[in-house]
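Review session, final week

We close the course with one last complete record, chosen because it touches almost every idea we covered. It is HpnL family protein, a protein from Sphingomonas paeninsulae with 331 residues. Go through it on your own first, then we will talk.
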Amino acid sequence: MKGYARIGLLLATIIGLAIAGWTIGAVGALQVFDAMATIGWTGMLALTLWSIAVLALLGAAWFAVAPGEAPARFPLFIWARTTREAATDVLPFSQIGGLVVGARTLTAKGVSTPVVYASMIADMTTELAAQLLFTLAGVAVLLFVLSDLPIRSSIMPLAIGGVAGMAAIIAVLAFAQRPMLRIAGNLGAHLLPGSIAAMAAVRTQLDAIYRQPRRVITAFVLNLLAWIASAAGAWIALRFMGLTTPLWAVITLEALIFTLRSVAFFIPGAVGVQEATYALIGPIFGVPPTTALAVSLLKRARDLLIGVPALVIWQAMEYRAVAIAGSTEEP
Protein backbone atom coordinates (compact mmCIF):
# COMPACT_ATOMS: atom_id res chain seq x y z
CA MET A 1 0.00 0.00 0.00
CA LYS A 2 1.35 3.44 -0.99
CA GLY A 3 2.14 5.98 1.69
CA TYR A 4 -0.75 8.28 0.71
CA ALA A 5 -3.15 5.32 0.82
CA ARG A 6 -1.96 4.45 4.31
CA ILE A 7 -2.51 8.05 5.39
CA GLY A 8 -6.02 8.01 3.91
CA LEU A 9 -6.90 4.81 5.74
CA LEU A 10 -5.40 6.19 8.93
CA LEU A 11 -7.42 9.40 8.72
CA ALA A 12 -10.59 7.49 7.85
CA THR A 13 -10.24 5.33 10.94
CA ILE A 14 -9.49 8.30 13.19
CA ILE A 15 -12.64 9.98 11.91
CA GLY A 16 -14.47 6.70 12.44
CA LEU A 17 -13.33 6.54 16.06
CA ALA A 18 -14.66 10.04 16.58
CA ILE A 19 -17.99 9.21 14.94
CA ALA A 20 -18.19 6.02 17.05
CA GLY A 21 -19.23 8.33 19.88
CA TRP A 22 -22.51 8.65 18.02
CA THR A 23 -22.99 4.90 18.15
CA ILE A 24 -22.30 4.80 21.88
CA GLY A 25 -24.64 7.72 22.42
CA ALA A 26 -27.37 6.02 20.40
CA VAL A 27 -27.22 3.03 22.70
CA GLY A 28 -26.78 5.09 25.85
CA ALA A 29 -23.39 5.27 27.58
CA LEU A 30 -24.88 5.54 31.06
CA GLN A 31 -27.06 2.50 30.41
CA VAL A 32 -23.99 0.56 29.31
CA PHE A 33 -22.18 1.40 32.55
CA ASP A 34 -25.25 0.49 34.58
CA ALA A 35 -25.39 -2.89 32.85
CA MET A 36 -21.70 -3.45 33.64
CA ALA A 37 -22.41 -2.74 37.29
CA THR A 38 -24.98 -5.55 37.41
CA ILE A 39 -22.32 -8.22 36.92
CA GLY A 40 -19.35 -6.40 38.45
CA TRP A 41 -15.79 -6.33 37.21
CA THR A 42 -15.37 -10.04 37.79
CA GLY A 43 -18.27 -10.86 35.51
CA MET A 44 -17.13 -8.31 32.93
CA LEU A 45 -13.62 -9.77 32.95
CA ALA A 46 -14.98 -13.30 32.49
CA LEU A 47 -17.19 -12.16 29.59
CA THR A 48 -14.30 -10.32 27.93
CA LEU A 49 -11.87 -13.23 28.27
CA TRP A 50 -14.51 -15.59 26.87
CA SER A 51 -14.97 -13.28 23.89
CA ILE A 52 -11.22 -13.23 23.27
CA ALA A 53 -11.30 -17.04 23.17
CA VAL A 54 -14.09 -16.82 20.57
CA LEU A 55 -11.90 -14.49 18.50
CA ALA A 56 -9.15 -17.12 18.67
CA LEU A 57 -11.57 -19.67 17.21
CA LEU A 58 -12.53 -17.26 14.42
CA GLY A 59 -8.88 -16.55 13.70
CA ALA A 60 -8.20 -20.29 13.53
CA ALA A 61 -11.03 -20.70 11.01
CA TRP A 62 -9.56 -17.97 8.81
CA PHE A 63 -6.09 -19.48 9.09
CA ALA A 64 -7.46 -22.91 8.12
CA VAL A 65 -8.33 -21.64 4.62
CA ALA A 66 -5.03 -19.82 4.10
CA PRO A 67 -2.85 -22.53 2.54
CA GLY A 68 0.88 -21.99 2.44
CA GLU A 69 0.97 -19.87 5.58
CA ALA A 70 3.46 -21.03 8.22
CA PRO A 71 2.07 -22.06 11.64
CA ALA A 72 4.03 -19.18 13.17
CA ARG A 73 1.61 -16.81 11.44
CA PHE A 74 -1.44 -18.26 13.17
CA PRO A 75 -1.49 -15.49 15.86
CA LEU A 76 -1.46 -12.92 13.05
CA PHE A 77 -4.77 -14.26 11.74
CA ILE A 78 -6.25 -14.04 15.25
CA TRP A 79 -5.10 -10.42 15.42
CA ALA A 80 -6.51 -9.70 11.96
CA ARG A 81 -9.85 -11.18 12.95
CA THR A 82 -9.80 -9.06 16.11
CA THR A 83 -9.27 -5.82 14.18
CA ARG A 84 -11.88 -6.93 11.66
CA GLU A 85 -14.46 -7.44 14.42
CA ALA A 86 -13.39 -4.26 16.20
CA ALA A 87 -13.96 -2.13 13.10
CA THR A 88 -17.33 -3.80 12.53
CA ASP A 89 -18.52 -3.39 16.14
CA VAL A 90 -17.04 -0.02 17.10
CA LEU A 91 -16.71 2.05 13.95
CA PRO A 92 -19.71 3.21 11.92
CA PHE A 93 -18.35 1.46 8.82
CA SER A 94 -20.55 -1.64 9.11
CA GLN A 95 -19.30 -5.00 7.76
CA ILE A 96 -17.45 -3.63 4.74
CA GLY A 97 -15.10 -1.49 6.80
CA GLY A 98 -14.31 -4.45 9.04
CA LEU A 99 -13.28 -6.53 6.04
CA VAL A 100 -11.02 -3.77 4.77
CA VAL A 101 -9.32 -3.36 8.13
CA GLY A 102 -8.88 -7.13 8.57
CA ALA A 103 -7.35 -7.46 5.10
CA ARG A 104 -5.06 -4.50 5.69
CA THR A 105 -3.85 -6.05 8.96
CA LEU A 106 -2.66 -9.15 7.11
CA THR A 107 -1.18 -7.47 4.04
CA ALA A 108 0.77 -5.06 6.27
CA LYS A 109 2.47 -8.09 7.82
CA GLY A 110 3.54 -9.53 4.51
CA VAL A 111 0.71 -11.96 3.68
CA SER A 112 0.23 -11.89 -0.08
CA THR A 113 -2.84 -10.06 -1.35
CA PRO A 114 -4.29 -13.06 -3.26
CA VAL A 115 -4.02 -15.25 -0.15
CA VAL A 116 -5.63 -12.56 2.01
CA TYR A 117 -8.67 -11.98 -0.19
CA ALA A 118 -9.17 -15.58 -1.30
CA SER A 119 -8.95 -16.86 2.28
CA MET A 120 -11.30 -14.10 3.44
CA ILE A 121 -13.89 -15.10 0.83
CA ALA A 122 -13.62 -18.77 1.80
CA ASP A 123 -13.75 -17.90 5.49
CA MET A 124 -16.85 -15.74 5.05
CA THR A 125 -18.54 -18.51 3.06
CA THR A 126 -17.90 -21.16 5.72
CA GLU A 127 -18.82 -18.72 8.48
CA LEU A 128 -22.18 -17.92 6.91
CA ALA A 129 -22.84 -21.60 6.18
CA ALA A 130 -22.13 -22.42 9.83
CA GLN A 131 -24.39 -19.57 10.91
CA LEU A 132 -27.20 -20.87 8.70
CA LEU A 133 -26.98 -24.30 10.33
CA PHE A 134 -26.80 -22.66 13.75
CA THR A 135 -29.83 -20.50 12.97
CA LEU A 136 -31.89 -23.37 11.56
CA ALA A 137 -31.34 -25.29 14.79
CA GLY A 138 -32.38 -22.23 16.79
CA VAL A 139 -35.53 -21.68 14.71
CA ALA A 140 -36.45 -25.37 15.06
CA VAL A 141 -36.26 -25.05 18.85
CA LEU A 142 -38.18 -21.79 18.68
CA LEU A 143 -40.97 -23.47 16.68
CA PHE A 144 -41.24 -26.15 19.34
CA VAL A 145 -41.29 -23.65 22.22
CA LEU A 146 -43.86 -21.40 20.52
CA SER A 147 -46.14 -24.20 19.37
CA ASP A 148 -48.95 -23.24 21.76
CA LEU A 149 -48.20 -19.57 22.36
CA PRO A 150 -50.19 -16.71 20.74
CA ILE A 151 -46.98 -14.75 20.12
CA ARG A 152 -45.97 -17.34 17.53
CA SER A 153 -47.77 -15.41 14.77
CA SER A 154 -45.62 -12.31 15.34
CA ILE A 155 -42.28 -14.00 16.08
CA MET A 156 -42.11 -16.68 13.40
CA PRO A 157 -42.26 -14.35 10.36
CA LEU A 158 -39.29 -12.54 11.88
CA ALA A 159 -37.38 -15.80 12.37
CA ILE A 160 -38.22 -17.21 8.95
CA GLY A 161 -37.42 -13.90 7.29
CA GLY A 162 -34.03 -13.88 8.97
CA VAL A 163 -33.29 -17.42 7.80
CA ALA A 164 -34.40 -16.56 4.25
CA GLY A 165 -32.16 -13.49 4.28
CA MET A 166 -29.21 -15.54 5.50
CA ALA A 167 -29.82 -18.20 2.84
CA ALA A 168 -29.94 -15.53 0.13
CA ILE A 169 -26.67 -13.96 1.29
CA ILE A 170 -24.96 -17.36 1.35
CA ALA A 171 -26.28 -18.22 -2.11
CA VAL A 172 -24.91 -15.00 -3.54
CA LEU A 173 -21.56 -15.42 -1.81
CA ALA A 174 -21.22 -19.09 -2.73
CA PHE A 175 -22.31 -19.02 -6.37
CA ALA A 176 -21.27 -15.53 -7.45
CA GLN A 177 -17.69 -15.55 -6.15
CA ARG A 178 -15.87 -16.21 -9.41
CA PRO A 179 -18.21 -14.17 -11.68
CA MET A 180 -17.98 -11.19 -9.31
CA LEU A 181 -14.18 -11.40 -9.24
CA ARG A 182 -14.12 -11.58 -13.04
CA ILE A 183 -16.44 -8.58 -13.38
CA ALA A 184 -14.41 -6.61 -10.82
CA GLY A 185 -11.25 -7.34 -12.77
CA ASN A 186 -12.78 -6.28 -16.08
CA LEU A 187 -14.17 -3.05 -14.62
CA GLY A 188 -10.96 -2.28 -12.82
CA ALA A 189 -8.94 -2.76 -15.99
CA HIS A 190 -10.21 0.61 -17.21
CA LEU A 191 -9.04 2.37 -14.04
CA LEU A 192 -6.22 0.35 -12.50
CA PRO A 193 -3.53 -1.28 -14.62
CA GLY A 194 -2.94 -4.87 -13.67
CA SER A 195 -6.29 -5.33 -11.92
CA ILE A 196 -7.26 -8.24 -14.20
CA ALA A 197 -4.09 -10.06 -13.22
CA ALA A 198 -4.76 -9.30 -9.56
CA MET A 199 -8.29 -10.67 -9.71
CA ALA A 200 -7.07 -13.71 -11.62
CA ALA A 201 -4.53 -14.37 -8.87
CA VAL A 202 -7.30 -14.25 -6.27
CA ARG A 203 -9.44 -16.65 -8.32
CA THR A 204 -6.51 -19.03 -8.69
CA GLN A 205 -5.88 -18.97 -4.96
CA LEU A 206 -9.58 -19.46 -4.24
CA ASP A 207 -9.68 -22.51 -6.52
CA ALA A 208 -6.64 -23.90 -4.70
CA ILE A 209 -8.45 -23.52 -1.37
CA TYR A 210 -11.58 -25.30 -2.57
CA ARG A 211 -9.47 -28.16 -3.92
CA GLN A 212 -8.58 -28.89 -0.29
CA PRO A 213 -11.95 -29.83 1.23
CA ARG A 214 -10.37 -30.77 4.54
CA ARG A 215 -9.38 -27.14 5.06
CA VAL A 216 -12.85 -25.91 4.16
CA ILE A 217 -14.52 -28.42 6.49
CA THR A 218 -12.13 -27.43 9.29
CA ALA A 219 -13.01 -23.77 8.82
CA PHE A 220 -16.73 -24.64 8.85
CA VAL A 221 -16.46 -26.62 12.09
CA LEU A 222 -14.37 -23.92 13.79
CA ASN A 223 -16.83 -21.23 12.74
CA LEU A 224 -19.76 -23.31 14.01
CA LEU A 225 -18.00 -23.76 17.36
CA ALA A 226 -17.38 -20.01 17.43
CA TRP A 227 -21.09 -19.27 16.90
CA ILE A 228 -22.03 -21.62 19.74
CA ALA A 229 -19.32 -20.24 22.02
CA SER A 230 -20.33 -16.67 21.26
CA ALA A 231 -23.93 -17.48 22.20
CA ALA A 232 -22.71 -19.07 25.42
CA GLY A 233 -21.21 -15.69 26.32
CA ALA A 234 -24.72 -14.32 26.89
CA TRP A 235 -25.44 -17.30 29.16
CA ILE A 236 -22.32 -16.42 31.19
CA ALA A 237 -23.60 -12.85 31.57
CA LEU A 238 -27.01 -14.09 32.74
CA ARG A 239 -25.38 -16.38 35.30
CA PHE A 240 -23.52 -13.42 36.79
CA MET A 241 -26.88 -11.63 36.95
CA GLY A 242 -28.28 -14.49 39.01
CA LEU A 243 -30.52 -16.00 36.31
CA THR A 244 -30.40 -19.76 35.74
CA THR A 245 -31.75 -19.69 32.19
CA PRO A 246 -30.89 -23.00 30.46
CA LEU A 247 -27.97 -22.86 28.05
CA TRP A 248 -30.08 -24.24 25.18
CA ALA A 249 -32.61 -21.40 25.64
CA VAL A 250 -29.92 -18.72 25.52
CA ILE A 251 -28.30 -20.29 22.44
CA THR A 252 -31.70 -20.34 20.71
CA LEU A 253 -32.23 -16.67 21.54
CA GLU A 254 -28.76 -15.74 20.34
CA ALA A 255 -29.15 -17.69 17.09
CA LEU A 256 -32.00 -15.47 15.97
CA ILE A 257 -30.29 -12.29 17.17
CA PHE A 258 -27.11 -13.14 15.27
CA THR A 259 -29.13 -13.73 12.13
CA LEU A 260 -31.00 -10.45 12.32
CA ARG A 261 -27.73 -8.61 12.98
CA SER A 262 -26.19 -10.18 9.90
CA VAL A 263 -29.16 -9.35 7.69
CA ALA A 264 -29.10 -5.77 9.04
CA PHE A 265 -25.42 -5.44 8.07
CA PHE A 266 -26.05 -1.97 6.61
CA ILE A 267 -26.85 -0.58 10.09
CA PRO A 268 -23.63 0.41 11.94
CA GLY A 269 -23.22 -1.92 14.91
CA ALA A 270 -26.81 -3.13 14.38
CA VAL A 271 -27.82 -0.34 16.76
CA GLY A 272 -31.43 -0.89 17.83
CA VAL A 273 -31.81 -4.25 16.07
CA GLN A 274 -30.00 -6.21 18.76
CA GLU A 275 -31.74 -4.42 21.64
CA ALA A 276 -35.23 -4.73 20.13
CA THR A 277 -34.78 -8.45 19.44
CA TYR A 278 -33.58 -9.13 22.98
CA ALA A 279 -36.53 -7.28 24.48
CA LEU A 280 -39.02 -9.04 22.17
CA ILE A 281 -37.81 -12.64 22.38
CA GLY A 282 -36.06 -12.73 25.76
CA PRO A 283 -39.27 -13.06 27.83
CA ILE A 284 -40.24 -16.22 25.89
CA PHE A 285 -37.32 -17.98 27.58
CA GLY A 286 -37.86 -16.47 31.00
CA VAL A 287 -35.52 -13.50 30.57
CA PRO A 288 -37.32 -10.28 31.62
CA PRO A 289 -37.13 -7.43 29.07
CA THR A 290 -34.99 -5.27 31.37
CA THR A 291 -32.54 -8.14 31.92
CA ALA A 292 -32.47 -8.98 28.21
CA LEU A 293 -31.71 -5.33 27.44
CA ALA A 294 -28.94 -5.37 30.06
CA VAL A 295 -27.35 -8.39 28.33
CA SER A 296 -27.41 -6.53 25.03
CA LEU A 297 -25.76 -3.52 26.63
CA LEU A 298 -23.14 -5.76 28.26
CA LYS A 299 -22.25 -7.07 24.83
CA ARG A 300 -21.87 -3.46 23.66
CA ALA A 301 -19.56 -2.80 26.61
CA ARG A 302 -17.53 -5.91 25.82
CA ASP A 303 -17.22 -4.76 22.20
CA LEU A 304 -15.81 -1.45 23.42
CA LEU A 305 -13.41 -3.05 25.91
CA ILE A 306 -11.93 -5.24 23.18
CA GLY A 307 -12.53 -3.15 20.08
CA VAL A 308 -11.26 0.26 21.14
CA PRO A 309 -7.83 -0.94 22.42
CA ALA A 310 -7.49 -3.16 19.33
CA LEU A 311 -8.15 -0.22 16.99
CA VAL A 312 -5.81 2.07 18.94
CA ILE A 313 -3.01 -0.50 18.68
CA TRP A 314 -3.78 -1.02 15.00
CA GLN A 315 -3.71 2.74 14.45
CA ALA A 316 -0.32 2.98 16.17
CA MET A 317 1.02 0.24 13.89
CA GLU A 318 -0.35 2.03 10.82
CA TYR A 319 1.15 5.34 11.94
CA ARG A 320 4.51 3.66 12.34
CA ALA A 321 4.20 2.16 8.85
CA VAL A 322 3.40 5.59 7.42
CA ALA A 323 6.37 7.13 9.23
CA ILE A 324 8.73 4.41 8.00
CA ALA A 325 7.42 4.72 4.43
CA GLY A 326 7.89 8.49 4.56
CA SER A 327 11.46 8.21 5.83
CA THR A 328 12.45 5.75 3.11
CA GLU A 329 10.98 7.94 0.37
CA GLU A 330 13.01 11.00 1.43
CA PRO A 331 16.05 11.72 -0.79
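Two points worth writing down before the exam:
Residues 183-193 have pLDDT under 50 and may be disordered.
The two ends are 20 Å apart (CA to CA).
Good luck, everyone.
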